[in-house]
């Protein structure tokens, strides 16, 4: 993942630099400062979103290298489009709009769906883990055994991996990143009503796939250890 490096705009080049602490200013204030010549605020913005945006892209694209490339392309686009940013808008949904568009462009350029979306491990220590498990709406309790929990998380990964791109992306934005409907509408450039109906379809699709995965698992139980 981007880790301790940041994407710093230098003309059209992208340079790896250390990421300073985030500070207290809002995203919009940081971008405004950058537009007015305070170049250090660009690295602050990257630092704020390095984890969240990178995780979104890994889960969307299913490939860490591709996610890093799109991550850098996204912030290069932020640099190039900073002057056109509408100060009445929020920075976060604008950023995710750019990232989602670039991720979709990459998928289309490859002329195939990613072979293994959500490839990155969601470990119990990852504070973003668990949201998709919440979608299962199971009456049973989650397993306490770490091995069983990892197996359950992998099953969730496999379930989401089978979803069409347009349903997977709206599920990611809503459940992993907690965007409200209005901001999802802006990111995906679709009407608010479509957001609601598509998210409903995504959850229903997930539930159907989840049921099928569990039935398949029940029909083909893992070999027990000796």
Write the layout of secondary structure elements.
Blueprint: E1 5-10, E2 13-18, H1 27-35, H2 40-61, H3 64-81, H4 91-109, H5 131-135, H6 146-161, H7 165-176, H8 181-188, H9 192-219
Antiparallel strand pairs: 1-2
Describe this structure in a few short sentences:
The chain has helices at residues 27-35, 40-61, 64-81, 91-109, 131-135, 146-161, 165-176, 181-188, 192-219, and strands spanning 5-10, 13-18. It is built from nine helices and two strands.
Outline the structure in words.
The chain is mainly α and 226 residues long. The protein has 2 domains: 1-120, RNA polymerase sigma factor, region 2, helix turn helix motif (Rna Polymerase Sigma Factor, Chain: A), CATH 1.10.1740; 122-226, Winged helix-like DNA-binding domain superfamily/Winged helix DNA-binding domain (Arc Repressor Mutant, subunit A, Orthogonal Bundle), CATH 1.10.10.10. It contains 9 helices and 2 strands, in the order ββααααααααα. The protein has a two-stranded antiparallel ribbon. Helix 2 (40-61) crosses helix 3 (64-81), helix 3 (64-81) crosses helix 4 (91-109) and helix 7 (165-176) crosses helix 9 (192-219). The longest helix is centred in the C-terminal third of the chain and has 28 residues, at 192-219. The chain is elongated and about 60 Å long. Mean pLDDT is 73; it is low at 8-23 and 112-142.
């Amino acid at each position: 993942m981007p880790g301790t490096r940041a994407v710093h705009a230098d003309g059209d080049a992208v340079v790896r630099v250390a990421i300073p602490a985030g500070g207290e200013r809002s995203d919009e204030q940081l971008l405004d400062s950058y537009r007015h010549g305070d170049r250090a605020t660009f690295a602050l913005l990257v630092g704020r979103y390095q984890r969240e945006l990178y995780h979104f892209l890994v889960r969307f694209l299913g490939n860490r290298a591709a996610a890093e490339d799109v991550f850098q392309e996204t912030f290069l686009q932020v640099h190039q489009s900073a002057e056109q940013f509408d100060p009445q808008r929020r920075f976060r949904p604008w950023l995710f709009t750019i990232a989602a568009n670039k991720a979709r462009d990459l998928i289309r350029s490859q002329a195939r769906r990613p072979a293994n979306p959500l490839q990155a491990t969601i470990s119990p220590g990852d504070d973003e883990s668990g949201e998709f498990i919440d979608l299962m709406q199971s009456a049973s309790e989650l397993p306490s055994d770490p091995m069983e929990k990892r197996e359950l998380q992998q099953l969730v990964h496999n379930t989401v991996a089978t979803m069409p791109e347009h349903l997977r992306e709206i599920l990611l934005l809503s459940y992993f990143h907690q965007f409200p409907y209005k901001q999802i509408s802006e990111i995906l450039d679709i009407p608010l009503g479509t957001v609601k109906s598509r998210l409903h379809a995504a959850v229903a699709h997930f539930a159907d796939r989840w049921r099928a995965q569990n039935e398949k698992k029940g029909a083909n139980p893992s070999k027990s250890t000796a």
